[in-house]
Each structure stands twice: as C-alpha cells, then as structure tokens.
Specification:
With 470 residues, the protein is α/β, with parallel strands linked by helices.
Length: 470
C-alpha cells in the first residue's frame, strides 16, 4: 500500500484549509474522459466531489461501480472514493451544483461544421448552473473544457442572463456571487490518472483573488508537491491550451512530412528523429512518424485555433498547413497500401488497432476511420482487432460494416488475410509470432504504420515490411 492510499483512508472530512476557504464540495459537470478523471482524482485528494452528467446510462453504470470508459487505473480510484463517500454520481445536475462551492465544467466541445468549437454543451451547462444558484453562497465556476479565447467571459454572460431571467441581482460588483476561472486540462487518454496527479503545470486563469485562493485549495495536494502553477488572465489560460495542443500537432506533422521525404530519398526517419530528439532544444517527444494524428483533441483544437485566427484576421499559416498535411497523411497511407497490394478488390487486410492511440477505447478522429473508409471504397475487406475499441468500432465504422469482420484477437485477425496493417501501437502487437504471421498472410505484406518493428527483423521471417519513412 502506498502513501497516497494511506492519506485517503481515514479522511471523510474536508481538509481544514479547505473548510476555512469556505468550500463545501465540488461538482463536476460532464463525466467523460476529463470530468470523470478530474472528479475521481480530486476525491482522492480528500475532497468531496459529485460528478454529474445528463447521460443517465453513464451515471447508472458509475453508481454500480462500472467505468464507462477504458482508462487504466481509474476503476480503483473510483471504487475507493465511492466507498469512502467522497465521490458520488448523479444525473440531477442542478442538485449537484446547488451543494457545491466549486463547479467544474468538463463537457465536450466538439467541432462545428466550420471548424469552430461548438459551445452548445458549455452553454447548456452554464445555464443549468445559473438555474441552480438558489442561495448567496460564493461559487467559483471553473471551465475545464477546451474552449476558444473569450469563452470565460461568455460563460459569465450566459449565467448572468439566466440569473436575470430569475430576477437575481448580479450586476452590482459587491454582490457578485460567483467568479469564472479557466483551468484547462492537459491529461492524455491512456495515462490520464497519472497525468492528472503529476501534471507538468496547473494553469489557472482568473480575475478575482478570491477565486484564485479557492483554486489553490482545490489543488492543495499538488501545490504542496511543488507542481508549477501558472496564474494568469482567463483569456491567456484559454489560449495556453490551444497553443500547446496546436504546437504538438505541428510537431507530429513536421516529422510525418520529413518521413515522407525520407522514404523518397532513402533516409531513415527513425534515426533522424532520434538524433533530432537528443537536441535539448527539440526534445524527443511527439517526433514519431505515423499515419497522422487523431483523437478527441488535436484535430478539433487545431481547427478551432485556426478558426479563431481567421476571425481575428491574423495569419496562422503553420497551423493551417499542419491541418491540411495531416489530412493528406491519412490518405497517403491508404494510397501506399493500395499501391503495394495492387487491386483491392477481394483483398482482406488484418487490421491491428483502431483506437487513435494505445490504452484507450477512444476512436474520435482516429486515422483508422479515414484509412479503412478509403480502402473500403476501393473494395478492401478487413478483419479487425483492438484490445479496447471493439464496441466503439461497431458504430464508428458502421458505414463500412459490410466490409468488416470483428475478431477476438490478433491471430484471429490474420486468419486468411492478404496483408497485415498495424494502426495502433498497443504493446501486445509489438511481439507478434512472425512465423505464424508469415504462414497466414497470402501476400506477406506487413504494413507497420506506427514503426514499432525494425524492417530487418520482420524481413528475416520472409515478410515484406512497409513502415513510415523507413
Ligand atoms: P466526453 O465527450 O468524453 O465527455 C463529455 C461529457 O459531458 C459526456 O458524458 C456528456 O454526456 C456530458 N455532458 C454534455 N453536456 C452536459 C450538460 N449540459 N450537463 C452535464 N453533462 C453534460 O468529453 P471529454 O473527452 O471528457 O472532453 C471534455 C472537454 O475536455 C473537451 O472540451 C475536450 O476538448 C477537453 N479535453 C479532453 C481531453 C481528452 O483527452 N479527452 C484532454 C484535455 C482536454
């Protein structure tokens, strides 16, 4: 048993510092990847948290101790804190807000058709919060969703508007009953619990010292652990999140384009990236060539930032180019496969990995969606397997369902296939029995779009290796 567990065992009361800050409990609105991890981890810090969601099925599962998403380590934290009654779940969002002094908004901000962030869930959450403010308790409303610069101010307006409808006086500065804080989240799916509890930094955008004090109390455990805190304005905090994600997306795109050039010129992108990464000014992370970035954040956040820049009439050409290059990269992968296989009619690919990255079931904007759809358009069929995303795959790939056979593991997937296609770098795909793969694959083509194998190693088994930029 580690110290963390010891600290949380006997503690069903608020830490005294929190009580003196006048904090009763925390409500988290939205119980998805970010909201559930936030709620669970804050309860593990000894705080009382109610997680609320409009999806009653999700809440019912959580109440029964089932975790609706695949996120390693989250189940233990949820179970422990639910047991000690620090963590509870409700679909009555208004009730959760009523009891809370700090209210996190962690709802989705999906892309609208024009690339801008669709704020309808944030607006709905803000208006629900306003309808729940039945007393004069001071509250901090924290935006954890990734939102365009200016949303903090907009959330305030939505709340004031809704409060006015209920004829409450919120215009008088001294009568302010709430403050808005921007506290963007940087966790990565697959290591979300670790990331939340060991962040590189906590960003707090605020315009009221009282709100800042409350936020420091919420994150007291991390504050004491010397986590760097960036205290700044609300707009700046909002921009930090978009700028960070867009920078990482650009970095990935850069190495993908270098990989494409390496392939043409006979260089090896793995060695290029390794040598580049040793340069302290560059760093080794996000320099892995592959089929293009995906997931719930980079695609939508780059598009939302580009949209913000266009509206502000500021050129953001690097981000715009990365968005276009990333779309090209996915199509290039499909082209590469079909060129090697010749006609795709009646060809079957064994597909290992569908999630946008390992250790998650999330397939939002996963490269698999574009690549398989494109290949299916030319007649390819697929035997697919992913350790976590099989349920999600059934509806995300419903338009090409007729071309897909769902398999129970990697060896089931290769049965009778023409070629192998690795799309997600799950650890269990790193040690395939290559002799068995060779026996099954009719063409012997081994497409490793995550570069998790060495070409020479695979080719020793008589297979033909095709990576990205190697
Ligand atoms: P998600 O889709 O997994 O979860 C959102 C949840 O909000 C859903 O369960 C939905 O039912 C609920 N919801 C929507 N409207 C609601 C309302 N009015 N009241 C209560 N619940 C409501 O989304 P996510 O991946 O957790 O992302 C949430 C936000 O965090 C987004 O802005 C995202 O960009 C950002 N973010 C995500 C990640 C990530 O890795 N997923 C990382 C950092 C930041």
């Amino acid at each position: 048993m580690d110290n963390t567990e010891d600290n949380t065992k006997d503690n069903t009361k608020m830490p005294s510092a929190i009580q003196s800050a006048g904090m009763h409990s925390i409500a988290v609105i939205g119980t998805g990847y970010v909201g559930l991890v936030t709620g669970a981890c804050l309860s593990d810090f000894g705080l009382h948290v109610v997680c609320a969601d409009i999806d009653p099925v999700k809440i019912e599962k959580l109440r029964k101790g089932e975790i609706p998403i695949y996120e390693p380590g989250l189940d233990v934290i949820v179970e422990r804190n639910a047991y000690y009654k620090r963590l509870s779940f409700t679909s009555d969002v208004e009730a959760a807000v009523r009891e809370a002094s700090v209210i996190f908004i962690a709802v989705g901000t999906p892309p609208a058709a024009d690339g801008s962030a669709d704020l309808k869930y944030v607006e709905a959450a803000a208006r629900t919060i306003a309808r729940s403010l039945h007393d004069d308790t001071y509250r901090v409303i924290v935006n954890k969703s990734t939102v365009p610069v200016g949303t903090g101010a907009q959330v305030k307006k939505w709340i004031q508007d809704e409060l006015k409808k209920n004829s409450r006086n919120v215009n008088h500065e001294e009568n302010r009953e709430f403050d808005i804080v921007s506290n963007p989240e940087f966790l990565r799916e697959g290591s979300a619990v670790y990331d939340f509890t060991h962040p590189d930094r906590i960003v707090i955008g605020y315009d009221s010292p009282r709100a800042l004090e409350m936020m420091k109390q919420v994150y007291r455990v991390l504050y004491l652990n010397d986590t760097p805190f960036v205290e700044t304005g609300i707009e700046t905090a909002e921009m930090i999140k978009y700028a960070s994600n867009s920078f990482l997306a650009v970095k990935i795109t850069f190495i993908n384009e270098i990989a494409n050039l390496c392939e043409k010129l006979g260089a090896n992108v793995q060695d290029v990236a390794r040598a580049m990464g040793k340069d302290g000014r560059i760093g080794p992370k996000f320099l892995h060539a592959g089929p293009g970035y995906g997931g719930s954040c980079f695609p939508k956040d780059t598009r939302a930032l580009a949209d913000l820049a266009r509206k502000a009439e500021v050129s953001l050409s690097i981000v715009e180019s990365a968005i276009a290059a990333n779309e090209r990269q996915k199509l290039l992968m499909a082209e590469k496969i079909s060129t090697r296989l010749g006609s795709l009619q009646n060809k079957t690919l064994a597909v290992l990995g569908l999630a946008f990255k390992p250790n998650t079931d999330d397939m939002r904007e996963a490269p698999a969606l574009t690549i398989l759809t494109e290949l299916a358009r030319h007649g390819a069929r697929f035997r697919v397997y992913d350790p976590a995303a099989m349920d999600e795959a059934q509806w995300r790939l419903k338009d090409i369902a007729g071309s897909i056979t769902l398999c129970s593991d990697e060896y089931h997937a290769i049965q009778g296939a023409d070629a192998l296609l690795i799309l997600t770098e799950w650890n269990q795909f790193r040690n395939l029995d290559l002799a068995r793969v060779k026996t099954e694959l009719k063409s012997g083509l081994f497409f490793d779009l995550r570069n998790i194998y060495k070409k020479e190693f695979v080719e020793k088994s008589g297979l033909t290796y095709i990576g990205v930029g190697v």
